[in-house]
Amino acid sequence: ISACLVGSEMCIRDSLCGELSTAEALLDELRATTAVTGIPVHRYVEIWVAALRGREPEVSSLVEDLTTDAKARGEGFALAFAGQAGAVLYNGLGRYEDACVAVREAVDVAPYSELSTPSAVAEMVEAAARVGERRIAERALERLTLSTRPSGGDWALGVEARSRALLSDGDAADRFYQEAIARLRRTRVRVQLARTHLLYGEWLRRERRRLDARDQLRTALELFTSMGAEAFAARAERELLATGERVRKRRVETREQLTAQEIQIARLARDGLSNAEMGARLFISQHTVAYHLRKVFSKLDITSRNQLGRALPDSVSAGHVA
Q: Angle formed by the axes of helices 119-130 and 134-151, to 10°?
């Protein structure tokens, strides 16, 4: 049990730091461990990583499973978390109205849970500011400060400064964005740093400061691409193109990389084993086998097992697809 708890904490840490591939590899190990020990698998990190990657169908499927179980157990925390993850997904995709709807419950229904401060509330500030719901954004910012000020840490105050920038104009907005970047650079939370560069670049472009905007947007694009945060990377790329910058074809490396367990499953499927046979051999459920196969197909850009022989040569190794 202690190993599972440590592994979960490491997954959370890696996902917050933008190490999404590492977090997914750890999740694979945790699934194998929980299948053997019978410890329930919690979907929180899995959903969070999928949301950061911008994979809407995957998030929807995982959230449906999570909320069904949570309602049966009366876990309000899980329902609020699902809302926050939805907001991350839709903010990344630039669908701000959907983000507002997704996170509203996490902020309004669970105002005193840790989900409402500061992460979920910061998502609400961004989404509401983008759709012109200034009063909602301002109320969310007020709630955000209830936790960021007592905390006093660079991560909390950096997110607060960015949220203030979203509701400010002119020199004040500029100062808040720069403060947010300076604070977040002193932390390991690369996701929030990259998002701040993106928001600052978007604001600079609207202020017609194209050269300054390009610097911020290039940084954001490089960070998101290195993480594999695909939706946020695409959003940064669109903004960079809008400045007149010529962008080289973006390649998110992690889409071509298979984890060790994905390679195992892909090879077994290539060799003709059924999901049940693979599950029995690897000590995981058929549902988990099917989940990994979907990820393999997506990463290898194929649609069936018959194509695995071509797409997965014997020389393939973990983290590298020939």
A: 150
